[in-house]
Design goal:
CATH topology of the largest domain: Spore Coat Polysaccharide Biosynthesis Protein SpsA, Chain A
Oligomer: single chain
Largest sheet: 8 strands, mixed
Number of helices: 10
Bound molecules: uridine-5'-diphosphate, magnesium ion
Helix content: 40-55%
Length: about 325
Amino acid sequence: MALLSIVVPCYNEEATVETFYAHTSAVCAGLDGVDVEFIFVDDGSTDRTLELLRRLAEEKPGVRWLSFSRNFGKEAAMYAGLEHARGELAAVMDVDLQDPPELLPEMLELVRGGEYDCAAVRRVDRKGEPLIRSWFARKFYKLINKMSRTEIVDGARDFRLMTRQMVDAVLRVGEYNRFSKGIFSWVGFRTKWVETENVERSGGESKWSFFKLLVYALDGIIAFSTAPLAVASILGLALCAASFFAIIFVIVRQLVWGGSAFGWPSMVCIILFLSGIQLFCMGILGQYLAKAYLEVKKRPIYILRESGGEHCDKRET
Ligand code: UDP
Ligand code: MG
């Protein structure tokens, strides 16, 4: 029988872990032709999450857990989970039930049918989300899709079910600055989008503040597009051309009409404008340099402190 590994990143989720397991394992019991294993990844939680996971693994078969030495972020947690998944199929799900487990049977059928390598979920609305947040999110998807050749689908969740072949491909993308929504799309394969409505959290709170999301969005752009670098050079070139014509104009004006040595306020404005643009472009360069710096260091994506549950070793390759 095929094995389906369900990877679940958890960060301070004491309020949701148990409901998630109860709900999802009930749905999984109805899946025929597959065994299911759960891989919970405790991303350095400071509440009782790990304790609950330990208990779950003791009581229930097919539950494994990994625990990080500190909070490494959801991207790292997904990576660790997928690295430890042993199934021929693997799925990634949030623990807060915002990824409805009821979709699993449909997704499983799609992938097992052989026509698709991956079934992924996208939400078609953003009900229950702060308005400003949805507005920025929509603009972000428009922008990144203009700037990057990798398609990033609006409303795509990280909830997906993949074949072993695709999981291995995702794991081969070993970059440190991970932006999974881009990586899943970059590796290719045939993906079927399953649409759903937005579901609110079953309990606890979202770990994403507006500022964290903004940084995440910028990371996504930098990870999957070098267009900002081109913007910097084009802007620089355009300004050089403009100042060249301005100089010609000033010289001609001096020669024809004379007496143009006035207007230092406008000069200050121009200097400020140009230095602003220079700083802006240097900032863009700095961002790429910083990312390259982190990549070059080759730090591990995550560090495990403990793991447990049956067969908790990494999958042998
Ligand atoms: N998460 C994580 N590490 C973090 C932040 C979040 O593993 O640093 C997990 C979290 O426990 C949840 C999932 O990522 O299972 C999605 O997080 P959340 O629900 O807070 O995000 P939202 O749904 O609001 O985008
Ligand atoms: Mg959530």
